[in-house]
């Protein structure tokens, strides 16, 4: 084991950096995926290059998010950190975000049309490349931090057999983010729409809205409100005194 360094959020970021160099195979795979936007552009699929490349980038970034997976699925460990859960998740996204940015810059000539296909203006190509990188990053975060399917509940009969209700939707996680962020670019809309959608998705994923957690918080707040009303009405049950038996 390698000793960590830094303190606070920096320690989590540096730990992810150590993991990158500990398993260089994942980094080699990420570098190899840079060929995809060049190949798609050479085939003349300029409009479909952002979603296809974003899906490939998503698959390449998922192995770099082990910290985010552990922190989002282990609530007890997340509470051990003296920081806001959103800050902890954001720190776990720093290294994958830097890798996505480097990947986007390396793929910029492909979106310019250097490898063939339709030539695009430099500013338009740069914005499209950034949209692709952001879409791949957000999709990877969505895939890793999404709640797994619940196998303890009732199952639903489908054409391919019985399966939990949430399993079908879990197969689409990540792909939905790619579609939402890159479709405005595919349709020729302004790129700021894609960036706005990505910002909203990032804020939602950062806060980690969980239905079960919201229900628990609502029940706790309701109980506190009832206790406060009982205290005001003077009908609150007296607190039990702790009796300690002493040896004589």
UniProtKB/TrEMBL annotation:
- Transmembrane portions of the chain: 27-46, 52-71, 91-111, 123-144, 151-172, 178-205
The alphabetical list of record keywords is: Membrane, Transmembrane, Transmembrane helix
The question of whether Transmembrane is a record keyword is answered with: yes
Instruction: Name any one Pfam family assigned in the record.
Output: DUF6297
Query: From what superkingdom does this record's organism come?
Result: Bacteria
- According to UniProt, the name of this protein is DUF6297 family protein
Species of the source? Tessaracoccus flavescens
